[in-house]
Design brief:
Blueprint (H helix, E strand, L loop, with lengths): L14 H39 L8 H4 L1 H45 L16 H33 L5 H22 L2
Helix pairs in contact: 1-3, 4-5
Length: 189
């Protein structure tokens, strides 16, 4: 049987978080590019003014004359991009890290059998859709287990009662056991 391959379309959980990341990176790149142009213009203007005031033309090409300024500007632009990108990443990861820790805690609670506590994140946290899905799973599990628990308690009560005619008791037990079996089959254990 051929294995299906799925293309990854979202690198974060939702498109909004992905868009925020891309917009922040694009803004950081734009700011550093504008800063690089202004720095180069300033350095080149200073160099050209010094050259003009010396009343001597340098024995070099114009490209070589401004190479040092161009290299310095490129270095500054790279540093600014790295700093802005690092700041953007830190900000985004800090908005993702907290919710991931909360979700991990919720998953561990569910694994431990705690189905009472709702899975909820703060309003501005990322991963809201994942938290909602996890909470829906917790609620569905809780409901299925409650049905099984109710049927189990009813079976226990039926077994404790004194019945003169065991046929209705047996039929009732079989019916409740069938319901419990159906609920357990839904869990796909």
């Amino acid at each position: 049987m051929a294995q299906q391959h799925y293309k990854r379309r979202n690198y974060f959980i939702d498109k909004e978080a992905q868009s925020k990341f891309m917009a922040a990176f694009a803004l950081a790149s734009l700011i550093s590019a504008v800063a690089a142009v202004f720095i180069f213009v300033s350095l080149a203007q200073t160099k050209l003014e010094k050259t003009l005031y010396t009343m001597r033309l340098p024995e070099t090409t114009l490209a070589d004359l401004l190479f040092k300024e161009m290299a310095l500007t490129t270095g500054i632009a790279v540093i600014v991009v790295i700093l802005l990108f690092s700041y953007t990443l830190k900000k985004i990861f800090s908005r993702i890290e907290g919710p991931l820790i909360k979700l991990r805690g919720a998953i561990l609670k569910i694994k431990g059998g705690n189905l009472r506590d709702a899975v909820a994140l703060r309003e501005k946290d990322e991963l809201q859709t994942f938290a909602l899905t996890l909470d829906e799973m917790r609620t569905a599990l809780k409901t299925k287990i409650q049905v099984i628990q109710i049927n189990s308690e009813n079976l226990s009560r039926l077994g404790e009662g004194d019945a003169l005619d065991s046929t209705p008791l047996t039929e009732e037990c079989h019916r409740r056991l069938k319901t419990m079996k159906q609920e357990l089959e839904l869990l796909k254990l």
